[in-house]
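Mitochondrial carrier protein, pasting as requested.
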Amino acid sequence: MTSTEARGASATREFALALASGGLYGATNTVVGHPFDTVKTKMQTQSGFTSSGALASARQILSSEGAVGFYRGCLPPMWGSAVYRSAQFAVYDLLYAEAERHPASLEHVPGTDMQWRVLGAGAVGATARTVLESPIEYAKVKGQTNQKWRFNEVYRGAGLQWARTGPMMTLYFCLFDACKRNGYASTPTGQFFSSGGCALIGFWVVWPFENLKNQAQAGKNWLAHARTTGLLGLYRGIVPGSMSVFLRNGAAMIVMQRANRLITELGLRD
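Structure tokens follow.
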């Protein structure tokens, strides 16, 4: 489970509760992180920004579009983030709870204290998120780069989306599980740094796919981009992107855990 509260008896009830608290996680994620994400996306894909640094890009957005420019394209991820992030947590919590009936899934991954069910539920939860996330990410990138999106293209870059989201979220679930087991997520401060740090590590691992995914969704030739930019170039935008990932996932986890505490206090887990 991603909740720090004691789990209830019903796996399906935990699934429903995770949908609700995960939705709050997703909405908070967008509110906090979207301005940094806009800077990152423009730096990677939009003409006029691809040779500027993060601060110069931010100043350019502010001068040409105003403060509202940092939230351009935020509507798809605002509602979409609530949907696909609630799905990732709900699917993870459902499978995690159901796996308790299968002793083999409770065995530890060799060389670790992590149970196999964490890895399995994390991989399935990450895949569920990808299916819902890809069209939303496509619309977001189009909005951030001042382009119109087309319905028949909403799964453009879906393969790159999975290559980015699948490993990233599986790693996130595994790392956050370790933080919980070691008591690092028992306080709001610990939750902030645990979730933000786990998400940041996951994003650093898959960052080239984030760049290539944005190229594809912006309508550019991502293969040609990969050949010409080199590995170092694929890490362009990592500074504002890292700030976005760390702050939004840290803040969102605090909101989600407070919601879970309220759920427990209201007796909804009984």
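Note for the archive: The chain has one domain: 11-265.
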